[in-house]
Amino acid sequence: MPWRRRLAARIPTWREIGASPRLLARAMNLWPPFRFAGIRVLQIEPGFTGARVMLRLHPLSRNYMGTQYGGSMYSMSDPFWVILLIHQLGDDYVVWDRQAQIEFLRPGTTDVYTRFVVDPAVVAELRAATADGTKALRWFANDIVDDRGELVARVRREIYVRRRPT
């Protein structure tokens, strides 16, 4: 299986792709779990300060009732808080999802959208809270809205942050 090692050596890691917000957004749009679910990264803002994501309503994203599949709405928010915080905090920090919740408020009958914004004050707060090497747990929330701007679902994620030992 030497061909597998050669292939793996040529495929860049997400970390390598993630050096550029535009390149990361493009790569995520080609990533099969997002692509086939109809999830589209519209923008990752310069400096990784925020992101905008869309979920198209199409045959592969519809549930039995013909509305947005809840799992796809959940997936559209999965990696973004962690990715944005990793870039905001830097390589000296470990950042992971700890738990997540989604509250469905109305059926998604159109394309749906969500936005993530990392406030610089929150980044400073996390740095201060983890300066001595302890972990910090913080909840982040984002709303999923439809074409009319009506709230479809609310997602909350608890993020684990710890400064790496020096």
Write the layout of secondary structure elements.
Blueprint: H1 2-10, H2 14-17, H3 21-30, H4 32-35, E1 39-44, E2 50-55, H5 70-75, H6 80-89, E3 93-104, E4 112-117, H7 120-130, E5 135-146, E6 151-163
Antiparallel strand pairs: 1-2, 2-4, 3-6, 4-5, 5-6
Outline, from the CA principal axes? Answer: globular
Strand order of the largest sheet: 1-2-4-5-6-3
Using the CA coordinates, give the radius of gyration: 17 Å
Profile the largest sheet.
6 strands, antiparallel
The number of helices is: 7
User: How many angstroms does the end-to-end distance come to?
Assistant: 38 Å
Approximate helicity band: 25-40%
Question: What is the H/E string?
Answer: HHHHEEHHEEHEE
Total number of beta strands = 6
Oligomer: single chain
Low-confidence stretches: none
Beta-strand percent range: 25-35%
Return the average pLDDT rounded to an integer.
92
Structural class: alpha+beta
